[in-house]
Write a structure and sequence with these properties.
Length: 296
């Protein structure tokens, strides 16, 4: 089917207002003109879109489905306008990245900076998300590229190696575990934790490993910021598990000690996720190739 974009836009307004008169006023059109557009859409689809009543209109199941896809189409067209406008103004590409905190805190800023020196006309939109949300954003087309921990399910997306990081136990400098050369995770579980968001890759990993030991992760405080986690550990409110390179930034200022975890799983892999490398834009492929070179 070929849909008229103006009719779809008018339908969105009607669906949002739940009233033809208000929609007509907003769009500066006669009620009859909007009603005609809706009727044409209904005839094209072969199903009613609205249920008319004394107070306005309600969406039928077909109307709810059309609203979902019409909004997606409108968002896609807006992104298209923005990106083509970038080309017209001399910008040669636009990459949208969603990444977990570990990647943003350690590797991605330097990688983007290095790429920007080589290709100064590329624009970036970068957002911090938990792993599952990164996967959903890439699958839905809201992000061109994602960075997640390897243990996060990629849900059929293509994955490529990115970087490795080392998870370490973070304790106050005077803590009973601070002088240990390494700590089995079992020993760490005797203490209360300052932990990240429940959907974060680190939390899911720690919970899974604790369950394998037949123990529970005792979370005293949950907070998404690595900086705040370090501050709370420094205040004696619990221990935490964080990437070693992140902790190194705060060791002196917050009187913290990073103690290696004895388990192999503390050596963690981060991966790139995308829908399909072969179908990616030339701009995205060039950036991914740059990341792969940096990993070597």
């Amino acid at each position: 089917m070929r849909y008229d974009l103006t009719s779809l836009d008018l339908f969105i307004t009607v669906a949002q207002e739940r009233n033809l008169t208000r929609a007509a006023r907003i769009r500066h059109l006669a009620v009859s003109a909007i009603s005609k557009r809706i009727s044409e859409l209904e005839a094209q689809i072969g199903s009613p879109l609205l249920i008319r009543n004394a107070r306005g209109v309600e969406l039928t199941p077909a109307g709810q489905s059309l609203l979902f896809y019409a909004r997606q189409l409108k968002q896609t067209l807006a992104q298209l306008d923005t990106e083509l406008g970038d080309y017209a103004s001399g910008v040669k590409g636009h990459i949208r990245i969603h990444a977990i905190t570990s990647a943003l805190s350690q590797f991605l800023p330097q990688d983007v900076a290095g790429f920007a020196e080589l290709y100064p006309q590329i624009k970036f939109d970068i957002e911090e998300r938990v792993g599952s949300a990164v996967v959903r954003a890439v699958a839905d087309g809201r992000a061109d590229l994602g960075i997640i921990a390897a243990q996060t399910a990629a849900q059929g997306l293509e994955t490529l190696p990115y970087r490795n990081d080392q998870l370490t136990l973070v304790v106050p400098s005077g803590h009973v575990l601070a002088q240990r050369r390494s700590v089995p995770f079992r020993d760490a579980l005797e203490h209360e934790f300052v932990g990240p968001h429940l959907e974060s890759s680190v939390h899911m990993l720690l919970t899974s490993e604790a369950e394998k030991l037949g123990l529970a992760l005792r979370l005293r405080i949950r907070i998404s910021s690595f900086d705040c986690m370090c501050r709370l550990v420094s205040a004696g409110l619990g221990v935490a598990v964080l990437p070693r390179s992140v902790v190194m930034q705060y060791q002196r200022s917050h009187s913290l000690k990073a103690v290696p975890l004895a388990e192999d799983w503390a050596q963690r892999s981060l991966v790139l996720v995308l829908r399909k490398y072969d179908a990616a834009s030339a701009t995205l492929k060039t950036f991914i190739d740059h990341l792969k070179l940096g990993e070597e």
